[in-house]
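@channel sequence for tomorrow's demo:
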Amino acid sequence: MERPSLEFNLPDTHGEGKLYVVDSLNNLNKLNVCPAESQHSLDQEDNTGGAGESMAGSNAGNQRLFFVTFVLTLTVSLALVSFVIFLIFQTRNEVDQISSRLLSEKKNIEELKKLNNIILKHLNQSRIKE
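structure tokens (generated this afternoon):
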């Protein structure tokens, strides 16, 4: 197999033009060295070359999205915990009120029992006298 000469007379270009020409020559050299696999690998390099910056931007976007999601999750969790604590205090207040009512009702029932006993004694005494 004859390989074509890679010696070219490069025109006198400036800046990015030289880099583009050198890059093109490197790609040609890769094609000549391994023509069967080179097109696939060059396509991958071209795809990942431009995607490096977009991957970095995508990665930063993913991190930002993760951070926003994390902050929202923490906020919702804090709100739920605050609501549960509020419900616990409300329930405790209601239980305290019910307990105080039960104690006062218990006292009232005991007083009624005493009055009932006094009335029964009085009735028993009045029957005996009759």
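heads up for whoever presents: The radius of gyration is 46 Å.
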